[in-house]
Amino acid sequence: MTSSSPAPVESSATASRPMPAPGPRRPAIRSTGLTKHYGARAAVDGIDLEIPDGVIAGFVGPNGSGKTTTIRMLLALVSPSAGEAEVLGTSIRNPGDYLPRVGALIEGPAFYPTLSGRRNLEVLTTLGGIPRSRVEEVLDLVELRERAGDHVRTYSMGMKQRLGIAAAMLPNPEVLILDEPANGLDPAGILEMRRLLSRLRDQGITIFISSHLLSEVEQVADWILVLKDGRLLFQGPTADLLSRRHGRLLVAAEHEAGLTTVATIAEVAGFKVARVNGHLEVDAPASFAAQLNRQAMAAGVTLVEISRSHASLEETFLDLTNGETR
Amino acid sequence: MIRSFRSEWLKLRRPGVLLSALGGTVGFSVLGIVLGLRRIGRTGEFTALALSQHGGFITIMSRGSEFIGIVALGIAAFAVSSEFTHGTLRNLLVREPHRLRLLAGKSLALATLIAGTVALAYAVAFPVALAVAPGHGIDTSSWTSGAGIGSLLSGTGDMIITALGFGLLGVLLGMVFRSPAPAIIAGFAYTLPIEALLVGSLGSSRNVLFAQQLDAIASGGTSQIAYGAALAVAAAWAVGAVIATGALFRWRDVAV
After folding, report:
1. Does the structure's ipTM exceed the value 0.85?
2. How far apart are CA B133 and CA B213, in angstroms?
């Protein structure tokens, strides 16, 4: 398992976002050896989480990797087989002490279909001892007030998702745990969700998002955790993960026939090469570009373009989880 | 627990739930009267003469106790198990992590709904019976006497106890099966054919089976099961059901 210090790291991916102030901070979520067995199978296998306060932490992993089980343990819905975890400095064995400060959307929005959106939220405010006035505030937050009087069964998936986020926001949480929050949202909804998460993070809320939309996670998450087969493969700043994989060089030659020569040069140097739409994609660091250019010129090939493509989270994720990038 | 109770009532106030509960209970009660009066015999305790006594109305109503019980069982089983199938239980547990408090409040709300619907059913059924019974040769004048009203109140209380017993069984089955259809089917199967088969094959089992005790309570005791004995055995069953339900809810993972 690879882990990094929870200290914030400025990166190209996160440069425009305010990071938590430097200095020792209490992790919002921490676990030690957290394990969940179902029979002989370990759904979660001794993970040591540490999520700093005030970040958006993306939680990614293949289906069945244990993300939802981990989230359920953090929310005291499932009891661990071994290990310990803390949320906001409180053991998950005392959920009454921290859950009032936590909002959650777990495995999609779940509501009473024959109650209105507003009444569904009132069920939760009444149960949680939350002021009823919060209902209208969170309905405004997710822009659902106009339809709040309608039965939830008449809502689109996107509206239910927004209502789920409204429900999670009811307690004015310090930690927000969202399982696949972008599911069912249209592009405009996803954009709005991204803005909302950034606003909430800027207000100091720690956000823990599980998502299979890696491009979304890459755009919003300051911190990332990669889980596979119940084990944590990486946790740390998103930029650190992305920097583990060098990008690609995109190469175009004056004459397409010259690309064969260029491909040979790159392969001899030990890099993988793919031919895509009249270009070469060379899995090589930027530092190889000058050498490639020189050798191509020496071989009589004129390159008209050498550009660098950054590694995406998807590529890095697939590398990390032993998948194929192409 | 009070928050859980109030929160549950926000759901129970749904027209669909209220209409189902009231319609089922009132409907079965009125149907029980109409069908019961068609089966008046010439001998035994179900004759026009016997039903003209001050407890005649309760005698008629107690014949339909299983049906009212089944409505109560269905309401409770649905209310509990649908929280699992809708996935709403996880939302509730995040807002109220003390599971036993959540369960206690929810159960109390269901109990008040069941008790209220039974009381309303009797309030509707009584005037219906007063109107219909004379047509079957029953003199209802003693039903409205002081003793008759006392009998009506105690009989209503007994039926409420019976319905609450069935409701408790519904809560347990809802917790076990975590899905409305199997929970309700299992409840119906147990209270109707299974207990009947057990009593048919082993008569003494009548004295220990839960639904038999509840039926006896609704009738204010029978010739085979004394009222006090029925209350005691039913109470023992109820304690066991409460412990089993609480343990299941407290310790079982919520993985839906």
Report:
1. no
2. 28
